[in-house]
Amino acid sequence: MLELKPMLSALWRNKASALLIALQLALTLAIISNIVVIVQDRIEKIERPTGITVEDIIALNFMAIPQNYDMTGAIAADLELLRALPYVKDATVTNQVPLSQSGSAGTFYTQPNQEIGGENSNYYNTDPHFIDTLGLNLVAGRNFTDAEIQFSDPNESPEIAVALVTQQFAEKLYPGQDPIGKPLFDGSGSNPIEIIGVVERHLGAWVGWSNAGNVAFFPSIKNTQDTNYLIRTEPGKRDQVLKALVQKLSERDPQRVIKTKVLSEYVARSYARDNLMVKVLSIVAAMLSFIVALGIVGLTIFWINQRAKQIGVRRALGATRTNISRYFLLENSLIAGTGIAIGSAAALIVNQSMVRDYSQPELTLMPLAICALLVLLVSLAAALTPAIRAANISPATATRSV
Amino acid sequence: MLKMNNVRKSFRTDTIETHALRDFSLEVKEGEFVSVTGPSGSGKTTFLNIAGLLEPPTGGEYLLDGDDVSNLNDRQRSHLRNEKIGFIFQGFNLIPDLTLFDNIDVPLRYRGFSAKERRKRIEKVLEQVGLSARAKHLPAQLSGGQQQRIAIARALAGEPRFLLADEPTGNLDSLMARQVMELLEFINEWGTTIVMVTHDPELARRAHRNIQIVDGQVCDLRAVPEQPAAVSV
């Protein structure tokens, strides 16, 4: 038989301790629910598709030692050598390595000489093998051709005529329209660059950038002192190829410094802060839950010791062990319920401030409800052992004078 | 009503075993008012605990209403306590955070009565003990005598056939003690069997029969009006 009314009135007469626990639970819920939403956001960010077959790609950077090095010739020869290596599916040249926290970006417009309303985007100067090497999915239009590649010196501004863009960037430039054949203007002026193809997805250089999905690809190779190759291997053969390729390139031309790194390493470094935040916040949430649970255990044990005689009297009057443990669990649920009600309101208020001031994700009802349930379960689990202990108090306690 | 045959109760620690009751045999008939006296540590409270099913005996046989209740489990003892036995404690043992109404309600809730039935019973017993107007008060707002009357009301609300009183006047002045005693006699006249543990020989004499316990055994059984209770060895 539930004893809600007398239980509530008894709690009201001892409201200080109950309120302290309720506030502790409220604070925990407010903090944990906001931690959960941040962790969830970071995990979503880490796990979002890059559009790239990250695990099979090797990034190679080389710097030529001699001045006036024939970079154009070296690139052609190197790529031919790389593509001929066993287990290599394709290789490409690029000015920047995707997802490496190092890249190039600019503002692009849909009208010539436009000064406002542009869209920021990463861009890559590359060749027609970029799509296959990175495993990108061409969803509209066509790829570059070799004939469209513009070779230029570092100080030259080549007249680029065509571009590939990501679907996200295309939608921002031309919302709801077919972007194929439409022009793109870079910040400098009036030369139209025709969009000839759209790739489904590609994350650019900076994973934390809100425009990371805005990417343009231009058929352009600059004759600089250093450049990057990306090499895609057959699945599971990356490390084997990695060992062989430096030796092969050095044999072909020893006058350069070559550095290699697998793309997954770049990705891991790019998300290192997010991963650290997920771990730290998860530990904070777990420790906070543990401390609150300890508080509840402590207070419930204190209450039980304080009310040992009363429990004995209840037992003498006919309460079964189940009645007693249920009483304490129900009492705890009432306190937890109060804490959850206050905590939910506090969580939403704190979240509004975090959304407004720190651009953190919005707390929705579902994670809040899950956190509230979690807090309730932690609270009940913490009260369970003391409640069972209370149930084991002998009814003979009622007749003891001390 | 209550029959104990060679009941034993011992408490054991790591180093010592204490025999609180030894071959304790006693019969209390329906409608009797029996007082239990004896020196401190003689086993009165242990007897009361076993009689009230607050703890099981170590050995022997205990029959309540003809049923052997010596080996019932905790749940069965709880139900039987709730249905058949009313308790009155020396320190009243009212729950301080509950109103008088809610205090009396405690055993009725465990009994599973409807809210309407509980209210009816509570109002009836409050009237019987003359404290209807104080139903919403807390125990601390009452005198000792009034608190004991509420404790008696709580014991009576379930209409038990058997009332166990542990020093019911021990914490009261003589006037209050007399009032409580008169109330118990009145209850007994209605037909409720009462077993009362007391140190007070005057009160003991007012019972139908006095039982003297010494060293965990019944020492003498005699009709009280004719002869005062005394230890018989």
TrEMBL record, chain A:
The chain crosses the membrane at residues 20-39, 280-304, 324-351, 363-384. Keywords: Cell membrane, Membrane, Transmembrane, Transmembrane helix. GO terms for molecular function: transmembrane transporter activity. Pfam families: FtsX (PF02687), MacB_PCD (PF12704). InterPro entries: ABC3_permease_C (IPR003838), MacB_PCD (IPR025857), Macrolide_Exporter_MacB (IPR050250). One of its GO terms (cellular component) is plasma membrane. It is a multi-pass membrane protein. It is found in: Cell membrane. Its main location: membrane. The keyword Cell membrane applies. The keyword Acetylation does not apply. Residues 26-245 form the MacB-like periplasmic core domain. Residues 283-395 form the ABC3 transporter permease C-terminal domain. This is ABC transporter permease. Belongs to the ABC-4 integral membrane protein family. It comes from the Bacteria.
From TrEMBL, chain B:
Pfam families: ABC_tran. Residues 2-233 form the ABC transporter domain. One of its GO terms (cellular component) is plasma membrane. Coiled coil: none annotated. It comes from the Bacteria. The keyword Transcription does not apply. GO terms for molecular function: ATP binding; ATP hydrolysis activity; transmembrane transporter activity. InterPro entries: AAA+_ATPase, ABC_transporter-like_ATP-bd, ABC_transporter-like_CS, ABC_transpr_LolD-like, MacB-like_ATP-bd, P-loop_NTPase. This is ABC transporter ATP-binding protein. It comes from Microbulbifer okhotskensis.
